[in-house]
């Protein structure tokens, strides 16, 4: 965690041009790591993809671990921003259905390849890189909180029964999403993702008054 804080401090101190170069490096690394995995992406690969010199790359990232942490932050922002404004207004059953349809459509457009840009990093990093695991956990917490806000809004408005637990339902919906994305990636069809999300949305609907 201290390492990540220091990386963010360094980013804040960069000039406009420096920030643009750093962003280009991180975007290139994120693209390659999503396509090839972390282990399958070398620093030299990133250097070529970003079209920067070795000295430029090492000026911003002293080692690959620092670059990986930056990629996690980048992918988290990309995933959550791509779901806006839907994700920030999941406060009705109609909004949940629209969000579900949008997620499924993305997988159709990707031909069910790649899975989740955040989740795909977990299998490689969670058990071997503590700092990366912490940052990945934070990413999923942000996602969960976005879902939770909408469910809590319905609960607070009295549209959800008192025994409905928005926090538990939000976590379960995110778990269904992640499991569905994984199986969709393996099977190259969206039916697992659709089944998982539909089951959870139906479960949430059962608590509506």
TrEMBL record:
<protein>
    <submittedName>
        <fullName>TetR family transcriptional regulator</fullName>
    </submittedName>
</protein>
<dbReference type="InterPro" id="IPR009057">
    <property type="entry name" value="Homeodomain-like_sf"/>
</dbReference>
<feature type="domain" description="HTH tetR-type">
    <location>
        <begin position="19"/>
        <end position="79"/>
    </location>
</feature>
<dbReference type="InterPro" id="IPR036271">
    <property type="entry name" value="Tet_transcr_reg_TetR-rel_C_sf"/>
</dbReference>
<feature type="DNA-binding region" description="H-T-H motif">
    <location>
        <begin position="42"/>
        <end position="61"/>
    </location>
</feature>
<keyword id="KW-0805">Transcription regulation</keyword>
<dbReference type="Pfam" id="PF16925">
    <property type="entry name" value="TetR_C_13"/>
</dbReference>
<keyword id="KW-0804">Transcription</keyword>
<dbReference type="Pfam" id="PF00440">
    <property type="entry name" value="TetR_N"/>
</dbReference>
<dbReference type="InterPro" id="IPR011075">
    <property type="entry name" value="TetR_C"/>
</dbReference>
<dbReference type="InterPro" id="IPR001647">
    <property type="entry name" value="HTH_TetR"/>
</dbReference>
<keyword id="KW-0238">DNA-binding</keyword>
């Amino acid at each position: 965690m201290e390492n990540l804080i220091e990386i963010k401090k360094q980013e804040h101190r960069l000039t406009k041009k420096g920030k643009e170069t750093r962003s280009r490096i991180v975007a290139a690394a994120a693209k390659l790591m999503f396509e090839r995995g972390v282990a399958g992406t070398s620093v030299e690969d990133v250097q070529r993809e970003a079209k920067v010199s070795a000295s430029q790359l090492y000026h911003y990232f002293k080692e690959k671990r620092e670059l990986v942490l930056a990629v996690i932050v980048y992918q988290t922002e990309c995933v959550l921003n791509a779901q806006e404004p839907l994700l920030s207004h999941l406060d009705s059953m109609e909004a949940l259905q629209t969000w579900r349809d949008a997620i499924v459509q993305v997988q159709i457009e990707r031909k069910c390849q790649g899975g989740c840009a955040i989740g795909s990093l977990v299998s490689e990093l969670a058990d071997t890189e503590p700092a990366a695991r912490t940052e990945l956990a934070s990413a999923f917490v942000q996602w969960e909180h976005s879902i939770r806000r909408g469910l809590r809004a319905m609960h607070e408005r009295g549209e959800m029964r008192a025994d409905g637990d928005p926090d538990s339902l939000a976590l379960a919906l995110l778990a269904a999403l992640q499991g569905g994305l994984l199986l969709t990636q393996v099977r190259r069809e969206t039916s697992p993702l659709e089944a998982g999300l539909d089951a959870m949305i139906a479960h949430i609907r059962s608590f509506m008054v």
